[in-house]
């Protein structure tokens, strides 16, 4: 036991040494001030050269346009983002490694291409992108947040399919980002790399997770577009905690070939890959490029469906109907979330031809019972085994999700079948519940005038203190239902207004637990965001 | 035991009495000659009135057009098909009941609508359709081929969703068709209704199954369009045995809400509903109507994908490439099948801009190992229990699939997961194998010039003698892969040419077993058909 206990520490040291080695290869020193305020989002601009600061402040499309028109070289762009990623790493510990050699040599090729008067390589020409670490990169380690695989898993020969697609479109992978132990945390802490912190509240709060490395990196503009993954909130919660945009697409839209997880289609709750970005435009850019590559020709589980841009036309005839879930009837969100939602509703209510109605949540407690029963159908056995392999200890949120969660147990085949049928029935019922926001037209057999999208909190609070993010349902319900869900920034905490409520009555024990978390260190200052789930009309976005 | 043994017989008597009662309600006597030749397909025209014979000889679109233009009333059409369905029942035992009251009252409504100068109800205005019995019809029993549920299962309040869609489009359900015990037979025999026979070889041969009632009824034109289901060949094998067209669509295209089976999405190998018809046109008509109804708004497991008609343009630039699977390397089909395939290939090889290449099958033995392990993950427990409930005996092919099949056993969760991963890996490998019929374009990341469709036998022989259809792989492999597959008629046995081969060497024991079946009673005269699976290009047809 002692030998293996030593083993994980050695692996972690090795992993961090490898990371530092890659950082050193950039050949610049990014000095971070010794004294930092809580909010470190302004630091990179202060420590980078003016040119690098300017390049990394551009929107994704601006970068692509400037690179394609030879106004900035891909090499300059890559250099600026490598530097800024190092700053982000020094501030939040968000990287598992950086890829300077690969990125620069790719940039040189792209630049040479334009010098030779060829057209830009593709719609992402010259755009640096970051990739969550469990998505394979050729000849690089693949660890999925655990120590043992970092050592024992064979390095992949080729990039994951999604990376191939981005690369062929002209994107340049420059950074790989952290993920938590087990990848089943809404925070981002592993024994391999430690804790990823929130750029809006350095040290104190979590970046959110599991795609917390992406969120912290993108919030600091060490990347403007990245790829995360989500099975219960892992794209949306960190996006919310760090004030960026994140999309959890429907299952079987974005290829997963070459990641370190179950084969596509074999999971009872499907983990999806999806984009995270500084802007909505970044998300759509990603989805468009991925769908245009027709990845279903390679990964047969994918649905052969082109990307369909939603063009919202507001008209008297067919107003846009938004359904608001104020809270999920289990846990009431903290004051800043409730205020943000109210302000959002006030704002959109004044837009002509937008209708806002309350959307009653449908059995979100049952949703969690089903989802949590299907996350680890082996009772966590495989995960415990991989931890035992290197002797690494269970971190608090791994312990909580695998061991303290009443849903998680070894299911027999009959129980598994039972929960799968529960899942399907819940999907049918929720769909019907949604339909009933409209009126049934007997002749067409369709429901008309149903709500077009739900607006609902991403989480019951803003960025969490470390080891406290235990209430997944605000996001996990949309994984169970397999609806696409978008997290987008709305505003920030206002300490003067968002004071802790004095509550005596609670909807549930979980509600009380969440209330206790409120204001324990008084509020941090991350932005908070709302969750936007899109209706059956756009279900496969 | 004796009491329950009596129970299933009572239920069967009740079921048959109910069926006969509905037949009697049509109020005509269809006299079938006492002496019948083997091939009874000419009988209905001889026993029906000239008018009914003429109406039932029309193509689906002709019927709809004549009804919509008020050249024939829907009532006349329904009456003709009810009569012909009775003839088919008397010849092949293909019905579980007929629905004269419902069909006639619907026809009256449709006719009244046109008299009132309204437009036709929809694109299927006035078309009688038949429905396999495990697809629910309001207030009618729902048995899934077993005795007990006929009695104990509550009658549904509403039609299954697919029936609702067809009805709203103007179709009239006039007949319900037989299905075998367990529905997991490629023949069509149950304790409830007995044996459904093949109209091309009365008594001697099977109609194929499990959608054998549909196939026999449609071959005799007691219906020109019907709905069957398929998880291992159940649409295609009977279509082949009876010389009609049948389409197994991709999963999650046709709604299953309201059938008597697992909820959609909870099955490791997905059972699909699909059309069977006298013509290709009938199949496409069905798919077009179903997709246009956007059933994904009601059944969330469905893919929100419109029907995409495939328009094959033959050109020098992009010729149509057909890949031929001559045999699956496990079991060699009987001589008439091999001849038909050869003749088909000779024919299409002469068409300009059609290329024909051999397509090597990819591990079809492994495909069966995976599929058969996933068909009954409870080792058949639930099916055995439902049979025990009424005391009904296991019929030979039920016994074979549940008890004698090495793949069928109670899986534990780990084994289930293993086979699900095997399934996904097999899908990836087959997709790659298919891609390798083309050339990889590094720049686009796509395979170009791949085979567009595979042409392959539906089964290793023509219509089978009763209780001998045990080799599923020619069809089941496409269920495992979830590729759409179309069975279409090509020709008939020619006794002078299709003589049994004198074989001494076999590819496998199964090959030898299949060879022995050949010509045991010398060849019957059903048509045989080829299976056409469509490439990734059209994968979700």
UniProtKB/TrEMBL annotation, chains A, B:
Active site: 132 (charge relay system), 210 (charge relay system), 234 (acyl-ester intermediate)
Protein name: amidase
Family: Belongs to the amidase family.
PANTHER family: AMIDASE C550.07-RELATED (PTHR46072:SF4), AMIDASE-RELATED-RELATED (PTHR46072)
Gene3D superfamilies the UniProt entry points to: Amidase signature (AS) domain (3.90.1300.10)
Binding locations of substrate: 183, 210, 231-234
The enzyme's E.C. designation: 3.5.1.4
Record domain Amidase: where: 77-498
Coiled coil: none
């Amino acid at each position: 036991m002692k030998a293996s206990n030593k083993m994980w520490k050695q692996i972690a040291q090795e992993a961090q040494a490898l990371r530092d080695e890659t950082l050193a290869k950039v050949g610049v020193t990014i000095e971070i001030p010794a004294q930092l305020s809580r909010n470190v989002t302004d630091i990179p601009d202060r420590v980078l050269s003016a040119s690098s600061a300017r390049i990394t402040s551009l929107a994704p499309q601006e970068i692509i346009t400037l690179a394609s028109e030879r106004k900035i070289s891909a090499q300059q762009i890559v250099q600026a983002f490598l530097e800024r990623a190092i700053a982000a790493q020094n501030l939040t510990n968000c990287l598992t490694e950086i890829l300077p050699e690969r990125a620069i040599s790719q940039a040189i090729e792209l630049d040479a291409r334009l010098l030779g008067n060829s057209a830009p390589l593709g719609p992402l020409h010259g755009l640096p992108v970051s990739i969550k670490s469990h998505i394979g990169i050729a000849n690089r380690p693949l660890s999925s947040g655990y120590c043992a695989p970092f050592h024992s898993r064979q390095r992949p020969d080729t990039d994951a399919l999604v990376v191939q697609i981005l690369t062929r479109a002209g994107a340049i992978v420059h950074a790989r980002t952290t993920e938590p132990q087990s990848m089943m945390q809404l925070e981002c802490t592993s024994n391999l790399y430690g804790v990823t912190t929130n750029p809006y509240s350095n040290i104190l709060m979590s970046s959110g997770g599991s795609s917390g490395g992406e969120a912290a990196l993108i919030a600091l503009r060490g990347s403007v577009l990245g790829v995360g993954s989500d099975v219960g909130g892992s794209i949306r919660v960190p996006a919310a905690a760090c004030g960026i945009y994140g999309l959890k697409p429907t299952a079987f839209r974005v290829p997963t070939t070459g990641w370190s997880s179950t084969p596509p289609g074999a999971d009872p709750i499907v983990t999806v890959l999806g984009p995270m970005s500084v802007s909505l435009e970044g998300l759509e850019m990603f989805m468009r490029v991925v769908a245009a590559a027709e990845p279903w020709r390679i990964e047969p589980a994918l649905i052969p469906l082109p990307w369909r841009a939603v063009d919202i036309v507001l008209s008297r005839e067919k107003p846009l109907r938004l359904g608001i879930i104020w809270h999920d009837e289990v846990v009431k969100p903290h004051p800043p979330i409730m205020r943000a939602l109210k302000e959002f509703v006030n704002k959109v209510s004044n837009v002509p031809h937008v209708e806002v109605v309350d959307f009653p949540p449908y059995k979100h407690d049952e949703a969690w019972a089903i989802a949590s029963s299907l996350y680890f159908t082996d009772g966590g056995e495989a995960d415990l085994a991989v931890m035992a392999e290197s002797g690494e200890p269970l971190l608090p949120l791994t312990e909580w999700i695998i061991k303290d969660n009443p849903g998680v147990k070894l299911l027999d085949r009959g129980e598994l079948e039972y929960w799968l049928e529960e899942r399907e029935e819940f999907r049918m019922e929720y769909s019907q519940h949604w339909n009933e926001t409209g009126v049934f037209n007997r002749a067409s057999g369709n429901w008309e005038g149903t709500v077009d999208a739900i607006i609902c909190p991403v989480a019951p609070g803003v960025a969490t203190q470390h080891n406290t993010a235990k209430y997944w349902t605000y996001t996990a319900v949309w994984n169970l239902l397999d609806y696409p869900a978008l997290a987008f920034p709305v505003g920030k905490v206002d300490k003067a207004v968002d004071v802790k409520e004095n509550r005596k009555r609670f909807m549930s024990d979980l509600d009380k637990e969440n209330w206790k978390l409120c204001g324990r260190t008084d509020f941090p200052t991350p932005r908070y965001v709302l969750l936007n789930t899109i209706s059956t009309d756009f279900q496969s976005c």
